[in-house]
Amino acid sequence: MEIEATVRKYALQNAVQFNGKATVGAVLGKVMAEDPELRSRAKEITGIARQVIDSVNSMSLVAQKDALLSLAPELLVKETKVREVSLPDLRNVAGEVRMRMAPNPSGPLHVGHSRMAILNDEYVKRYGGICYNRFEDTDPARIDPTGYDTIPEDLDWLGVTIHKTLIQSDRFQIYYDVAKQLLEKGKAYVCTCKPEDWRELKNHKKACPHREQPLNEQMLRWDKMFDGSYKPEEASLMVKTDLAHPNPAIRDFVGLRIDDTPHPRTGTKFRVYPLMNLSVAVDDHLLDLTHVLRGKDHLNNTYRQEYVFDYFGWKKPEYIHYGRISLEDVQLSTSKMAKGIREGLYSGWDDPQLGTLRALRRRGIMPESLRRYWIEVGIKEVDIEFSWKTLYSFNRDLIDDSANRYFFVADPVKLTIEDAPKLVAKAPFHPDHPERGVRDLHVGDDSAVLVSKDDLASNPSRLRLKDLCNIELRDGAVQYAGNDLSVLKEGVRIVHWAPMDSVQAEVLMTDGSVRKGVAERGLADALGQVVQLERFAFVRVERATPTVRCVFTHK
Predict the structure, then answer these.
(1) Can you tell me the distance from the alpha carbon of 394 to that of 388, in angstroms, rounded to the nearest whole number?
(2) Is the predicted pLDDT of residue 81 greater than 50, yes or no?
């Protein structure tokens, strides 16, 4: 039919231009512009457009381009060569690149952590260098012992290659030796002021009474930090910087403190704990790191750590600071997540409501989609908001071709079709892959099917049951109305359905809710796979019995 061909070519063009999804309004505008006389048949044309667009949107982008090239090659705008998105080159690369990631083992990694992991991994693989995983576990109160195992598992899932792992709680004597050398150089001091008094003096660019005391007095207090003479907060080792520095955060900083909290790995073996800026500076030097990637919220830490490098004449790595990224509508706080798990608010670290990598993995998000996302974001200093929409778009590109299609009916309502012949639907597993075959969906002898309550909410007079037949609804009865697709030209909607022998099914959503309904029996055979529940969403099937349980991936 000529009109259908016209609609189809513009639907294909619109879909190709907008990432595989054509819209009715845009297509109708093109069709009417080509033949203004069709405006008098707007209702009919709209029905045809909906039918054609549903078909076009079910195709992959590659298939859409191929179809447009065959039908109307003049509408396929010649594409300029797309520049492959990649990270910028690192500055001052000479020889082997050595980089690190430095997680705190307070729990598993979340989506924000994946940025640090993937960017380091990308650069090390580009230059053929070494990537360290360094557990920064020098705050005993903030450690979840499971993190020592879950973090490597998360990195492995991301495809990140770790060449060597270090644990800072194994390296305390190294930090003590460096701290002692700083005291001997006159670049550190042991302060017994009350913490609030020390901060007040620092804010006014004034030295505390202990800052310039002689070495023998400093060493005496240093030894007392270890022998139990001081309680927590009664003494700390401070690293000197510049008390006249315009930024108060840079003026002197705490290098080591006393903490009697038992450490999950070392128990009560140590009571003097290094703080990040000292331990990180020491380890970055000893690992001979060439480049350090970190968020620009660490700029002050970089300035502090550079003082330690300068005091010993160590070569500094190249520091690269990228912008902050805000993530909305998802829980990322490790302490709040742990509390929620304890209280039963979340089922575990992989609860779909959470932003952990374990939750994304459970949902069917592919690690490659995260890699593509962070490479596209890059290492610019501009602050941005994390786009779930973009991540889902990347993931859709990765899973759409492999995801077989199934029917899921939420809140099902039984319809008995009167005067129907024996009905069997031949629904394709995938519209782009006929070689995968079809799902034979048999309607029982009572001619009853299940449809969603939502699809009946508008009291439609006619419906098209996808891949099955047309029905008319009037006076509480449902009448078989043939199988002629031309009804779609009149605006009849296509709805999905399920046979009466369907299985109970549920979908765990990211807001904590559960969508319950029924699904065709074959869905249980897709255990562990990411599939598309037609007109609903992509999901990952994680349980087959007694109820098929799926986890929401994205639309």
Answers:
(1) 10
(2) no
